[in-house]
Specification:
Layout: E1 5-11, E2 15-21, E3 27-34, E4 46-47, H1 49-65, E5 73-80, E6 85-88, E7 98-99, H2 107-125, H3 134-144, H4 146-150, E8 154-157, H5 158-167, E9 171-173, H6 174-179, H7 192-197, E10 207-209, E11 214-217, H8 220-226, E12 233-239, H9 240-248, E13 255-260, E14 264-270, E15 280-283, E16 290-296, H10 300-310, H11 315-325, E17 334-336, E18 354-356, H12 364-388, E19 395-399, H13 406-416, E20 419-423, H14 428-440, H15 446-449, E21 455-459, H16 466-497
Parallel strand pairs: 1-5, 5-12, 9-10, 13-19, 19-20
Antiparallel strand pairs: 1-2, 2-3, 4-7, 6-8, 11-12, 13-14, 14-16, 15-16, 17-18, 20-21
């Protein structure tokens, strides 16, 4: 029996995608299932973990129906967004919907902790505390849902909860451990001091292993639910961005990654992390390396919001055609995409989105292009932070669902001034499949797995747009500064009203 196929499963913010590849990197099958996100109050973002498992099983059944034989799967690995976690009681029951990484409810707790312990938290965790991390979310839970907090028996990052459904394992990797903001980056283990700030015991956290560790085999129950062969090797996995940056080709310093997904990110590889208030760091799949990352909360999610709000009948393809009709700079229309607050470089959960500069001469095409450009400006904002720290780069791999638009790809190159390389397969499910290969021995290490990473397209900045976009970027930043007090007042009034 030819068991040489690898399965990667990625839980994204809006969907779960499964991908099967062979050991030459050829995609043999894939399927994606939508995941519902709940927002019971402004700034809240939650999901039901049971929906993740249902989506996983459904996606695999679709792949088997396409002709892929599950008996040929030699190993499976999983990825998911960092910071998203599942809380369980002593009986293994899920206590509440999972709070997502883009949830902003714990902004007050994060600010309070930053004032009281900010330097200490940075020293231990390696990162600045903000509402995106699990630590302040647990602080919020203790204050607002004390009954649920008191019942916490286990905390599992999202991909680890899903993997437990497959093989019954109870571990996590270093990257997701850092993402909880409960780990000590100096010792490599959990921090009793940070756990104390969250009013939890270290005992509720799983053991930490390498991302490519075999954690078990598919159980009989999971085999029945998914169609996978019982005993198929399961590999620990890691965060989605860790997998995406690797599968996109960020395997050496000097190459960056820009991600156009639900959120947008700017990353680069480093062997010598310098922990600071403005740049996030995580361990990378490449041994003895880390990735420095900055992220904007609203990227493809802002694009989807525009479609749902104004262009339902037009759809994404129609919106892209409209955007091509507008001139560079959208004839002065600027979009600030802070629909759910902002992370880098402002770390402000109370920022809000806006269109500025509207006139009678603007039409539908301008709105579509301005959203592309506004998101590109936020990525440029993040990139400038890295440049000021001498961590910039001239070439970037572009990954994520937003790469489907040729116009948006070119706008990213023009606004950032970077040479953009688009990999053939740059999403996290492909990266998860590569991790499955590393863990199972199909590849000896990350260097051998990286042989399968191929570039499909290269774009250079258009020099004719440089002057227009430089001026627009300056105005974009000025709009953010001018509207920040107004946005704070609006956010405060909304909170009081709810």
């Amino acid at each position: 029996m030819n068991k040489d196929l690898l399965l990667g499963i990625d839980l994204g913010a809006g969907s779960l995608k499964s991908m099967v590849i062979d050991t030459q990197g050829t995609v043999k099958g894939s399927a994606s299932k939508n995941i519902e996100t709940l927002s019971p109050q402004p700034g809240y973002s939650e999901q039901d973990p049971e929906n993740w498992w249902a989506a996983l099983a459904s996606s695999l059944q679709e792949i088997w129906a396409s002709g892929v034989d599950p008996e040929e799967i030699t190993a499976v690995s999983l990825t998911a967004g960092a910071h998203t976690h599942v809380l369980e009681d002593a009986k293994g029951n899920i206590l509440r919907p999972a709070i997502m990484w883009n949830d902003q409810r714990s902004g007050v707790q994060a600010a309070r902790a930053r004032d009281a312990h900010g330097e200490r938290i940075l020293q231990i965790s390696g990162n600045r505390i903000s509402a995106t991390w699990t630590l302040p979310q647990l602080m919020w839970l203790r204050e607002e849902e004390p009954e649920n907090h008191s019942k916490i028996h286990r905390i599992r990052p999202a991909k680890d909860w899903l993997r437990r459904c497959l093989d019954g394992s109870d571990v996590t990797d270093q990257t997701d451990a850092w993402g909880l903001m409960l780990a000590n980056v100096n010792s490599g283990g959990w921090s009793a001091e940070l756990c104390s700030m969250a009013a939890i015991s270290v005992d509720v956290l799983p053991d930490i292993v390498d991302s490519a560790t075999i954690t078990g085999g598919v159980t009989a129950a999971a085999a029945a639910a998914t169609g996978l062969r019982q005993g198929t090797s399961v590999i620990c996995g890691t965060s989605d961005t860790n997998a995406e940056t690797f599968s996109g080709g960020m395997t050496r310093p000097g190459v960056g990654t820009l991600k156009l997904a639900t959120a947008g990110t700017v990353s680069t590889l480093t062997s010598d992390p310098v922990f600071s208030d403005d740049v996030i760091h995580y361990p990378h799949l490449v041994a003895d390396h880390y990735y420095a990352i900055l992220g904007t909360n609203s990227c493809a999610s802002a694009h989807r919001w525009l479609r749902d709000a104004l262009f339902v009948e037009t759809g994404f393809e129609g919106m892209d055609q409209l955007a091509q009709q507008a001139s560079v700079g959208s004839d002065g229309l600027l979009f600030s995409p802070y629909l759910n607050g902002e992370r880098s470089p402002y770390w402000d959960p109370d920022l809000r989105a806006s269109f500025v500069g509207l006139g009678f001469h603007h039409g539908a095409s301008h709105f579509c292009r301005a959203v592309y450009e506004g998101i590109a400006f936020t990525l440029r904002d993040c990139l400038e932070v890295l440049r000021t720290r001498n961590m910039g780069f001239d070439t970037a791999r572009l990954v994520g669902g937003g790469t489907k638009s040729g116009l948006w790809r070119q706008i990213i190159a023009d606004v950032t001034g970077l040479t953009i390389e688009v990999p053939e397969q740059g999403d996290a499910s492909f990266g998860a499949a590569l991790i499955a290969g590393i863990g199972s021995g199909a590849f000896s290490d990350t260097s051998e797995a990286a042989r399968l990473i191929r570039v499909a397209e290269t774009l250079s900045p258009n020099p004719e747009t440089k002057e227009i976009y430089e001026a627009a970027f300056t105005r974009f930043r000025a709009v953010k500064e001018a509207l920040t007090p107004v946005n704070h007042e609006i956010a405060c009034s909304v909170r009081e009203a709810t």
